[in-house]
C-alpha cells in the first residue's frame, strides 16, 4: 500500500512557495545582472586605458559606450540569441588584443595628435593615415564594448519586467553598488586583469551554465590574459613594469631599475651614492642622473626639513639624505611604486629614520600639512594618465594649479625655496607652469632648461631664486616675456596640456561619429519611437544631469581629499546609496515632485556659491561628513524625482534604457568643461534638470488633454 506524503504546511503554502520561487529567481538574477554590468564597466575602463594608449585621452568613451550598450540591452529586454551566444567570443576579441597591446603596437598610438604637440611627420598623407588608424583602433574597441554591454544590459532588462518598477530599480541600484564595491576591493589589493576577468566570468556562469563552448572560451580568455609578463605589477592606478638594468661587473646587485607605467617610461630607481659613482663613474644611467637630482641642493646645500611631492621610488629622497636633510616628508600617490622603492631602491632611502613616507595625493597633503619646509621639491609628478576614471581631469592636474602653488608657498619657511621639474622644455605647458608660479608668488621664478636625459625645465621660487646655475641655459626672461598671453592653470580650469580653451581634436572627431553610429543603431532596432513622448525625454534629461553631477562631485571631492581612486569609488558609491535611499523613501511615502525639484535647484545654486576651501583646515571626519554629504544631497533629491516619476509611469525597462541614453549624452557634454572650466558642469546640470522639468510638464499637460474628453463624455452619459 502506498503511504501518502504527509505535509506539515497549511493548505495553500505550496502555491505560495511556487509563486515566490520565480519572484526570488527574477530578483536574484536582476541583482546579478546589475552587479555584472557595473563590474565589467569599471573593468573595461581601467584595462583599456592602461594598455591602449589612445584611451588615456579618450577615457570617458568606454564609459559612454558601456552606458549605450547597457541602455540598449535594457530596452530590448534581452539580447538576441545569436548575440548572447556570441558573448564569450566578443569578450575574447575585446580582452585578448588588450592583453597583447604591446605586441600589436597599440600603446604607441601617440597622444600628441590630441593635444597639439606635433605628430612627428609633416606630410599630410601620413597625418591622414595616422588619423584613420587612430579612429579605426578606437571604434574597434568601442564597437566590442557596446556589443558586450548589450548582452549584460539584456540580463538586467529581461528580469526588470518581471518585478514592480520601484523594487526593480532598487535591486538594480543595489547590484550596481555591489559590483562597484567588488572591483574597488580588487583594486585595493593590487590584483590584475586575469583576476578581474576570472571573478567576472565566474559570476557570469549562471547565465551560461549549460553552454560548454562558452565556458571553454571564458577559460581560454582568462588563461591567455594570465600569461605572465615578467616584471609587470598592477596598482590601483597603473600597469607597472619594473625591471632591473644590467649592472657593472663585480657589482653584487642591480645598480638601477627601470619603472614604466602604462607603457610609458616613468623613472629609473638608481644608485647615485658617491661610493658607487666613484667606483663606476661611467655607469649608465647613473652617471647622467646624478647631476639632475643634485640640482636642488646646489641652491639649498643643507636643508633641515624637505618636502618631496611625487617621491616615486626614492631618487629625490636619497638625494635629500645625501645632503644632510634632518627630516624628509616623501609623498607618493601610488602605493605599489612606493613599495617598490622601499624594497628595491639600491640606496634604500625609505629605511632611514629621517624619512616619513605618505601614500597621498600631493595637493591633498600640501593643503593639510602644518610643517614649515626649507625646501619643497615638485618632482616629476606627471601621472602619464591623461584622464581620471570618471572625468576629464588628470590625476595630477590639481597639483599644478595657482591654488596649489599658493598652498605650497604657505608651507615654506622664512628662508624656504621651492623647485619644480617638468619634462616639457620649450612648450606651452612650460609657459603655463611659469606664469602660474609667477602669479602664485608675485615674482617671476628663475627657469633653466635641462638636458640630462630628457629635455626638461627646472624652475625656482623662494629665497634662492637669485642663485645662478651657470652651466644651464637660463630662460627666465624668455618665459617672463610670454606670461601676459598665457592661460593660467587654476582649480577652475586645471588643464595643463590644453593649449587653449578648446576640446581636443580626437574628441571632436570621435564624439560625433560615435553619436551618429549610436543613432543609426537605435533606428535599426526601432527603439526611437519614444522620441516623440515628453515622458521619455523627462527621464533622458534626468540621466544626462545625473552624469554631470557625478563628474562634478569627483572634481569637488578631489579638491578636498585628493585625486585618488578612493575618491572616485566613494563618489560613485555615495551616489548609488543616495539613489537607493530615495527609492526606498518613495516606496513608503508619496513625496511632491515640484518640492523635490525646488530643493534640487536650490542645492545646485548654492553649490555655485559655496567655497569648498572653507573645509581645508577641517578634520578628515568633518570633511567627509560635510563635503561628501553636500555633493551627494542633490543626487538624493534627483533620485526622489526619478523614483516618483517611475512610480507613476511604470515601464521600468524602457525608463532605465532611456535614462542610460541620457547618461551617454551627459558623458559627451562633460567635455565642455575644457572650454568653460569645471564650474560649467554645474550650469549644464542645472540646464538639463530644467529641461527635464519642462518635459515633465509637457507630459502632464498631454495626459490632462487625453483625460478631459473622457471626463466630459462620462458627465454627459451620467446626465442622460
Q: Can you put this structure into words, describing what you see?
A:
The protein is of the alpha/beta class. A seven-stranded mixed sheet has the order 7-6-5-8-9-11-10, sandwiched between helices. A four-stranded antiparallel sheet has the order 1-2-3-4, covered by helices on one side. The chain has helices spanning 13-51, 60-76, 81-99, 112-115, 124-160, 165-188, 193-208, 212-225, 274-279, 286-299, 315-322, 335-344, 362-368, 402-410, 428-441, 476-480, 505-524, 534-561, 565-588, 593-609, 620-649, 652-669, 673-676, 679-719, and strands at residues 232-234, 239-244, 256-261, 264-270, 305-309, 327-332, 355-359, 373-378, 412-422, 446-450, 456-462. The longest helix has 41 residues, at 679-719.
Q: How are the SSEs placed, and which strands pair?
A:
Layout: H1 13-51, H2 60-76, H3 81-99, H4 112-115, H5 124-160, H6 165-188, H7 193-208, H8 212-225, E1 232-234, E2 239-244, E3 256-261, E4 264-270, H9 274-279, H10 286-299, E5 305-309, H11 315-322, E6 327-332, H12 335-344, E7 355-359, H13 362-368, E8 373-378, H14 402-410, E9 412-422, H15 428-441, E10 446-450, E11 456-462, H16 476-480, H17 505-524, H18 534-561, H19 565-588, H20 593-609, H21 620-649, H22 652-669, H23 673-676, H24 679-719
Parallel strand pairs: 5-6, 5-8, 6-7, 8-9
Antiparallel strand pairs: 1-2, 2-3, 3-4, 9-11, 10-11
What spatial order of strands do you see in the largest sheet? 7-6-5-8-9-11-10
- For the record, give the distance between the C-alpha atoms at the N and C termini, rounded to a whole number: 71 Å
Q: What is the mean pLDDT? A: 84
Task: Supply Rg.
Answer: 29 Å
Annotation, overall tally of beta strands: 11
What amount of the residues lies in strands?
5-15%
How can the largest sheet be summarized? 7 strands, mixed
Number of helices: 24
Helix content: 55-70%
What is the SS-derived class?
Answer: alpha/beta
Q: Globular, elongated, flat, extended or rod-shaped: what is the shape?
A: globular
Amino acid at each position: 500500500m502506498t503511504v501518502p506524503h504527509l505535509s506539515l504546511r497549511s493548505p495553500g503554502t505550496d502555491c505560495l512557495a511556487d509563486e515566490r520561487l520565480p519572484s526570488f529567481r527574477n530578483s536574484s538574477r536582476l541583482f546579478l545582472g546589475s552587479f555584472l554590468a557595473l563590474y565589467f564597466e569599471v573593468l573595461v575602463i581601467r584595462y583599456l586605458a592602461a594598455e591602449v594608449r589612445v584611451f588615456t585621452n579618450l577615457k570617458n568613451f568606454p564609459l559612454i559606450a558601456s552606458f549605450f550598450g547597457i541602455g540598449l540591452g535594457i530596452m530590448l529586454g534581452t539580447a538576441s540569441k545569436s548575440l548572447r551566444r556570441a558573448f564569450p567570443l566578443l569578450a575574447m576579441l575585446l580582452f585578448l588584443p588588450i592583453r597583447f597591446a604591446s605586441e600589436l603596437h597599440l600603446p604607441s598610438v601617440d597622444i600628441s595628435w590630441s593635444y597639439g604637440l606635433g605628430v612627428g611627420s609633416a606630410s599630410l598623407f601620413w597625418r591622414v593615415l595616422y588619423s584613420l588608424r587612430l579612429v579605426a583602433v578606437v571604434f574597434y574597441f568601442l564597437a566590442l564594448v557596446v556589443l558586450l554591454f548589450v548582452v549584460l544590459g539584456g540580463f538586467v532588462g529581461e528580469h526588470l519586467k518581471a518585478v514592480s518598477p520601484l523594487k526593480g530599480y532598487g535591486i538594480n541600484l543595489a547590484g550596481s553598488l555591489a559590483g562597484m564595491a567588488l572591483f574597488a576591493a580588487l583594486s585595493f589589493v593590487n590584483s590584475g586583469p586575469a583576476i578581474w576577468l576570472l571573478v567576472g566570468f565566474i559570476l557570469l556562469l549562471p547565465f551560461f551554465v549549460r553552454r560548454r563552448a562558452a565556458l571553454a572560451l571564458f577559460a581560454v580568455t582568462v588563461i591567455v590574459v594570465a600569461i605572465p609578463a615578467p616584471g609587470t605589477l598592477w596598482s590601483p592606478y597603473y600597469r607597472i613594469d619594473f625591471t632591473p638594468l644590467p649592472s657593472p661587473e663585480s657589482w653584487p646587485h642591480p645598480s638601477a631599475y627601470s619603472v614604466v607605467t602604462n607603457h610609458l617610461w616613468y623613472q629609473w630607481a638608481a644608485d647615485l651614492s658617491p661610493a658607487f659613482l666613484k667606483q663606476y663613474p661611467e655607469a649608465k644611467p647613473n652617471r647622467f642622473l646624478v647631476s639632475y637630482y643634485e640640482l636642488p641642493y646646489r641652491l639649498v646645500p643643507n636643508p633641515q626639513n624637505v618636502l618631496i611631492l611625487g617621491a616615486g621610488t626614492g631618487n629625490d629622497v636619497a638625494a635629500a639624505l645625501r645632503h644632510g636633510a634632518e627630516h624628509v616628508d616623501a609623498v607618493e600617490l601610488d602605493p605599489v611604486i612606493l613599495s617598490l622603492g622601499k624594497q628595491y631602491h639600491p640606496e634604500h632611502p625609505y629605511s632611514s629614520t629621517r624619512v616619513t613616507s605618505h601614500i597621498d595625493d600631493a595637493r591633498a597633503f600640501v593643503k593639510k600639512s602644518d610643517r614649515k619646509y626649507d625646501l619643497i621639491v615638485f618632482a616629476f609628478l606627471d601621472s602619464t594618465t591623461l584622464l581620471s576614471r570618471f572625468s576629464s581631469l588628470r590625476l595630477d592636474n590639481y597639483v599644478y594649479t595657482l591654488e596649489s602653488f599658493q598652498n605650497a608657498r604657505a608651507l615654506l619657511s622664512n628662508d624656504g625655496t621651492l623647485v619644480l621639474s617638468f619634462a616639457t622644455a620649450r612648450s606651452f605647458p612650460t609657459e603655463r607652469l611659469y606664469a602660474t608660479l609667477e602669479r602664485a608668488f608675485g615674482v617671476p621664478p628663475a627657469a633653466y632648461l635641462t638636458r640630462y636625459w630628457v629635455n626638461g625645465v627646472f624652475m625656482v621660487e623662494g629665497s634662492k631664486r637669485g642663485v645662478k646655475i651657470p652651466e644651464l641655459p637660463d630662460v627666465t626672461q624668455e618665459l617672463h616675456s610670454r606670461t601676459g598671453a598665457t592661460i593660467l592653470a587654476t582649480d577652475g580650469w586645471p588643464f595643463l596640456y590644453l593649449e587653449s580653451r578648446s576640446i581636443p581634436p580626437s574628441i571632436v572627431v570621435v564624439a560625433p561619429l560615435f553619436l551618429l553610429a549610436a543613432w543609426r543603431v537605435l533606428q535599426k532596432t526601432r527603439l526611437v519611437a519614444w522620441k516623440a513622448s515628453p515622458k521619455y525625454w523627462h527621464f533622458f534629461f534626468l540621466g544626462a544631469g545625473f552624469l554631470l553631477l557625478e563628474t562634478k562631485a569627483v572634481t569637488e571631492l578631489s579638491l578636498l581629499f585628493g585625486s585618488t581612486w578612493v575618491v572616485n569609488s566613494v563618489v560613485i558609491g555615495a551616489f548609488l546609496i543616495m539613489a537607493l535611499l530615495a527609492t526606498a523613501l518613495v516606496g513608503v511615502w508619496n513625496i511632491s515632485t515640484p518640492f523635490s525639484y525646488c530643493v534640487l535647484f536650490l542645492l545646485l545654486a548654492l553649490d555655485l556659491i559655496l567655497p569648498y576651501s572653507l573645509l581645508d583646515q577641517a578634520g578628515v571626519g568633518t570633511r567627509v561628513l560635510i563635503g561628501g554629504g553636500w555633493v551627494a544631497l542633490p543626487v538624493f533629491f534627483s533620485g526622489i524625482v526619478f523614483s516618483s516619476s517611475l512610480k507613476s509611469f511604470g515601464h521600468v525597462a524602457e525608463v532605465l534604457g532611456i535614462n542610460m541614453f541620457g547618461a551617454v549624452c551627459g558623458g559627451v557634454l562633460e567635455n565642455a568643461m575644457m572650454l568653460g572650466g569645471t564650474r560649467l558642469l554645474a550650469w549644464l546640470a542645472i540646464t538639463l534638470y530644467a529641461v527635464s522639468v519642462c518635459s515633465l510638464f509637457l507630459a502632464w499637460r498631454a495626459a490632462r488633454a487625453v483625460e478631459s474628453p473622457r471626463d466630459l463624455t462620462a458627465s454627459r452619459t451620467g446626465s442622460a
